[in-house]
Amino acid sequence: VKQQSAAIIERFGKFISVRGPGIQIKIPFIDRISGRLSLKILQLDVVVETKTSDDVFVKLKVSVQYKVVEEKVFDAFYKLDYPQDQITSYVFDLIRSQVPKMKLDDVFSKQDDIAVAVKEALGAAMQEYGYFIVKALVTDIEPDAEVKIAMNRINAADREKTAAQYEGDAARILIVEKAKAEAESKRLQGRGIADQRREIAKGIEDSVGTLSGVGINSQEASALIVVTQHYDTLQSIGGETNSNLILLPNSPQAGSTMLNDMVAAFSASSQIGEALKKESAESHGNQGGLPGSSKGPNPKRIVKEEPMDGLEDDQDVGG
C-alpha cells in the first residue's frame, strides 16, 4: 500500500479491514482488495451561476479542499458514492441560497463571508461520511459581460472625475500663486516708480535752485530743464534699434511751447477753482440772511478767461 493511501480488504464480499501504507499480506483467493482511497488533500472546483438581489447574473467559482479522515475510511468508502458530485450539489445549494440576498457589489466585498459559510455548512454535512473540509475559497466572480463593461466604465468615470478634480485644484493653485506674484510685482513696481518720480522731482528742485543761484530766474531755469529732458528723450528713442517710427518735434521751441501750455493750463485751472470757491461762499452767505430782508442773492460772477498764448518774460513759474 502506497504512502498517504488506504486499501479496503474484503473476504467473500464482506469487509475485513483497512490496510495502511507498507507491506500488507492477504490470503490468496479468499481476501481481495475492494478499493483504495487517497488520504491526500484533494481539490474540487465548482462553477455556480446565480442571480443577485439587483437582478444581475453572475458566475462564482468555488474551490473546495477536502480529504478523507484516516479513522473514517470505512464510512468514506461504504457510506458515500461519488463524493465529488455530493460536494458539488451542496455548494450549488449553499451559493444559491446566499448570493440572491446580496447586491452585486456586496458579492465582491463579502466573498470571504460566502467562503466561510460554504465551509461551515459543507463541513457539517460531509463529516458524517468521513470527509473533512479543509478550506473553501471563492476564487473568481464573473458578472454578465454587459454588466462587466458597465462596471469598468463607471470605474473609469470615477477615476477621470478624481483626476479632473486634482487637475482643477492644481490649476487653481497655479492661478492664485501667479496672481499673488503679479500683485507683488505690481506693488514693487509702483513703489519703484514712486521713488523714481520723487527723486526726479527732487533733482529738478535742486537744479532750479542751482540755476537761480547764478542769476537765472525760475522760468528760464524750468525752460532749460524741459529742453534738456526733451533732447534726452529724443536721444533715448533714437538709440533703440527695434523701436517703431515716432515723429516728434525736434526744434528748441518744442520744449518751451510744451512748458508754456502746461503753465497756462495750471493757471487757468487754479483761477477757475478760486472763482468757484468764492461763488459758493457768497451763495451760502445770502441763504443765511434774516427773513424779510430786501436784499436778494448776489448775481453770479462770470469769470472770463482769455486765452493765454504764453507767459511774460518776468513771470515767476516757480512761485
From TrEMBL:
- Which organism encodes this protein? marine metagenome
Region of interest (Disordered), residue spans: 275-319
Start and end of every Band domain? 1-155
The family database entries (SMART domains) matched by this protein are listed as: PHB
**Xref: PANTHER family:** STOMATIN-LIKE PROTEIN 2, MITOCHONDRIAL (PTHR43327:SF10)
Protein name per the record: Band 7 domain-containing protein
| InterPro entries, per database record | Band7/mec-2_domain, Band_7, Band_7/SPFH_dom_sf
Q: Return the Acidic residues bias intervals.
A: 308-319
